[in-house]
């Protein structure tokens, strides 16, 4: 296990290094931040002053060298726009995104797994057909349009739920979160639902397939023969064995949701990292873009590692093979 | 017992979980966010807008950018390079301390020294030689060169409290303890990407704003911002997209306020090189000479464009046809320089005179995310120029972050660009857009087409030296007429901007495009 983790860490360092190089060159090629940052009536003197203070007039290899040396010391540069350390800006926004993504994952688990189990037990029944048809909608509606519809229906027409921002936040165990207040909680509902709909559909389908594959297996027959109730067979024995693919997919989805919750965050004005990165790309705020992508890559590496470890916890066969 | 338990539980819930949201008297949905509360960190429009809520300047700019006394109650010119400013009496900062000359000296000195500023106020204070406090309410200023526009220049610098800000970095201004100004509102909290909250300054020296508690929400998505107004979550929104104007007007409970902006959209025809990029003969081979160097060709292209049609069909009426740089609310606008009306016959005549009776080929370039309708605009232009007798080889629309760099590098022969106004007169825009490109002197910084006319340069320099305000404006008008006789660029239109408001509210807004809570009032 230790060797395994060590090897993973070395791979991670290599991946991070290559990413930093590619992203740095890519961002450098896009455009000139001075064109965006400077006001329309800026003079040449101001231009020169800004170029010098942001080190934009240094040759590219020198810029990269400076970046990588300070990055190794944990300093990813200062945002051009906010003049604050890039990592500070990112980590300030990350909790909001994590909160949104976690909520939508929880929603997808507590709705998706039971629905998938019900659909899988009696394939072809009316219940199964309706659940599966519903999940097609969840998959295929464009996220953007679906978000606008949620706003139109629940915020504009019915007036039940707020549609912008995080609302009142409070502190639970020192973490600033919308869960701490009622106002914050209802602000969370629409964006989390918007993000969760596709996930729910995914979980339903994975669960249903899993159930259909597992039900005919011998251990289910033995369980029945022992007189265990159908309900216990389904929710304990079958569920346990079908969790592996669900954990794998959700692990990867968790990463993608954090990295790409952009659309939902933009529509619902949710102050997370997705919105930050889009704004930063438009403003050519190079330090933020580079630092953000490195953070996301690091996060994916960690998630993959965690998923691997979870496997061995869920499946005794993998555990015994490893030892 | 049971009753008390329930009561305690209810009390607990009501104080923590069920606590109603903090209700503001006025909630504004704003499209863009400032990058810092430090009013001297960056002078982009967003930052100036936010700064105007908490800080004052030596002069006040109204919604159409015209100047009136601000923290400087009056000023006198002792000789061409010496000025005496008399500061307003009895003004206090948000923390209760008195506003004095020392704060002015400190603010002006700090203006060009803010570390890592992406858009510093350097130009505003570059003509200052010395700034000294004569007494508590008098400041004496000497300049390097005679600068008739001194008050417009240093008047743009926001005045901060020396005691509160000394030794602090820009990011410290996120705290009300450092962001101490004399402005109509007092900062409460800034949650980046989320909200900005403030309350009215009861001891404000000017008119105390009507709404006390104000919350600004940052909602960058156009559709979401409009939905927030429709759902009643916010009372006012800015930057209403043109296509939603009719809808907000038609909805019960909301209305729209529109005003022309100072942003001119123009077509640039590059005279930079001897061969214009992507300009070809009729067979598609590069043209040996640059046709845009001929003023008749530039005029012909201007005559091919139907500006009314563009405004009407592409912008849904959200524009005003333009024939020069600044609209008529600003100093230096010359009423004798109208927008060209389409006249294809005349255009063909001019082309023939210039030696292109059959026209030539060109490619048009534009951004596609910079201002409403920019991608559609360039396609319409393409059609109009083909109708006018040119061969349009293609139109290309790119994201602004990519486009702006290439446009400044001179990669495009014919390209659409825009320029906003943030000053009371056309002088700075004339200087940066149309003055001959001169890197040493720092003039013509945005002269991407490299137009050059020594007569215009001289006329502009003369106007800038003029101390008498009225004569200066007249000279700017003459210079405008002089330069636009040669069609240095092809102005298309000035944008209109829209605000959406809940019925019962009005907003004073204009060329400055600012959405300020102190300018929002209940309608009579």
UniProtKB/TrEMBL annotation, chain A:
Record's keyword terms, sorted: Cell membrane, Membrane, Transmembrane, Transmembrane helix, Transport
UniProt superkingdom: Bacteria
Protein's cellular compartments: Cell membrane
TM segment ranges: 12-31, 100-121, 141-160, 185-206, 233-252, 258-278, 290-314
Membrane topology: Multi-pass membrane protein
InterPro entries according to UniProt: BPD_transp_1_N, MetI-like, MetI-like_sf
Keyword Zinc attributed: no
Domain ABC transmembrane type-1 span(s) in chain numbering: 94-307
GO BP terms, alphabetized: transmembrane transport
Gene Ontology cellular-component annotations: plasma membrane
Coiled-coil ranges (or none): none
Pfam family, one: BPD_transp_1_N
Alphabetical list of CDD domains matching this protein: TM_PBP2
Family per similarity comment: Belongs to the binding-protein-dependent transport system permease family.
Name the UniProt record assigns to this protein: ABC transporter permease
Automatic annotation (TrEMBL), chain B:
Location, primary (coarse class): periplasm
A Pfam family it matches: SBP_bac_5
Start and end residues of each Solute-binding protein family domain: 67-439
Gene Ontology molecular-function annotations: peptide transmembrane transporter activity
Alphabetical keyword list: Signal, Transport
The organism's place on the tree of life at top rank: Bacteria
Database matches in InterPro entries: Peptide/Ni-bd, SBP_5, SBP_5_dom
Biological process terms in GO annotation: peptide transport
Cell compartments where the protein resides: Periplasm
A GO cellular-component term linked to this record: outer membrane-bounded periplasmic space
N-terminal signal peptide: 1-23
SUPFAM superfamilies, sorted: Periplasmic binding protein-like II
Family assignment from sequence similarity: Belongs to the bacterial solute-binding protein 5 family.
Record PANTHER family: OLIGOPEPTIDE-BINDING PROTEIN APPA, PERIPLASMIC BINDING COMPONENT OF ABC TRANSPORTER
This protein's name: ABC transporter substrate-binding protein
Lineage summary: Bacteria, Pseudomonadati, Pseudomonadota, Alphaproteobacteria, Rhodobacterales
